[in-house]
Write a structure and sequence with these properties.
little secondary structure; two-stranded antiparallel sheet
């Protein structure tokens, strides 16, 4: 008898814990509250919810789903969002400063003007996302899949790009000053007028990319491939160069 009582108590406790998590989530979805700082919302579905302007600072969003949700102007600073589904969200002007977005999914997300300063996007999936004029200063994008992203005028300065895939990305006038770029792929990327001042770029692939008028002053370029890239008005003499395959196919030493 006592065993049955203990089991029943455990079940009620679990239901109570779920209810405690569900209550703020339900209120957020219903528009009854606009702030849930530090809340545990792990695993909750906010699919297609209107969460514009909500403040979720420091919340636990691990494995939650925001698929097609409206997060315009939302504040997600310092959130833990490991493996979280942000596919196709509208996160225009949202703030993800210092957020842990490891392995998060942001396929086709609208993130123009978003502030992701210092965010951890390791192994995140950003294919076809829009990051026009977004701020990603000091962000970590190691092993991030970002094929065909549109990130013109974005700030990636001081960021980490280890094995990052930016094939076909639109990165015109974006800033990579001081970034660490290694084993990254910029194949057929649009990088005209991009800035790599003081960046460290090694063993990366710029095959067929558009680098016209890019700035590389003070950069260190080692073992990269620039074959078939458009490099008009790029002053490589302003960079420290070693063992790069240049646009004309020659190995620079």
């Amino acid at each position: 008898m006592m065993g049955k009582i203990r089991v029943a108590g455990m079940v009620l406790g679990m239901l109570g814990a779920f209810g405690a998590a569900a209550a703020p989530a339900d209120d957020l979805i219903a528009g009854l509250r606009k702030e849930c700082r530090g809340c545990d919302l792990a695993g909750i579905s906010f699919k297609k919810a209107n969460l514009a302007g909500v403040d979720l600072t420091g919340a636990n969003l691990t494995d939650a789903s925001f698929h097609r949700a409206n997060l315009r102007g939302a504040i997600l600073d310092g959130v833990t969002a490991i493996g979280t589904n942000f596919n196709l969200i509208d996160g225009t002007l949202a703030s993800f400063k210092g957020a842990d977005l490891t392995r998060s999914m942001m396929y086709g997300a609208q993130l123009s003007g978003a502030d992701m300063t210092g965010a951890n996007l390791t192994e995140a999936r950003l294919q076809t996302a829009r990051l026009t004029s977004a701020k990603l200063k000091d962000a970590v994008l190691d092993r991030t899949l970002a094929r065909d992203v549109v990130a013109n005028n974005a700030d990636f300065s001081g960021g980490s790009f280890h094995q990052t895939n930016l094939t076909g990305a639109h990165l015109g006038r974006s800033v990579f000053d001081g970034a660490i770029i290694k084993y990254a792929g910029f194949v057929h990327a649009e990088l005209s007028r991009a800035s790599f001042i003081g960046a460290s770029i090694s063993l990366s692939d710029f095959y067929g990319s558009d680098l016209r008028r890019a700035r590389v002053t003070g950069a260190t370029l080692t073992g990269n491939r620039f074959a078939n890239a458009a490099t008009a008005e790029v002053d490589f003499d302003q960079a420290t160069m070693s063992e790069n395959f240049m646009a004309d196919g020659r190995l620079q030493k």
